[in-house]
Protein: Peptidase M20 dimerisation domain-containing protein
Organism: marine sediment metagenome
Amino acid sequence: MVLENLKPKIVWDIFEMISNTPRPSRHEEKIRNIIKNYIIEAGKTHKIDYKLFQDDVGNILIKKPATSGLESNPPILLQAHLDMVCETDKPEGFDFFNKGKMRILISNIGYLYF
């Protein structure tokens, strides 16, 4: 794993899991299930109270109550796309559905790229 020494480790583990999941537009079912299963397992493992919703078009919403003692703080909302832009400059192309993993690299100045 090229990201193994980056901190915080859990963030980069999740990033790599997502990056290694093919998810072209209108074909997000695999990443959606991975994220939902991750949340379900994390909830069980860490005894986290949450509610998980999915609408008819596949949007997912995860609601978690405030941490004890922080209930009066403003809530936080994070939003993101599940799909990725599936384009390549390789003359032979790239099969985003079947190749799966994309190679993650770190440049000599610390940028991540594929």
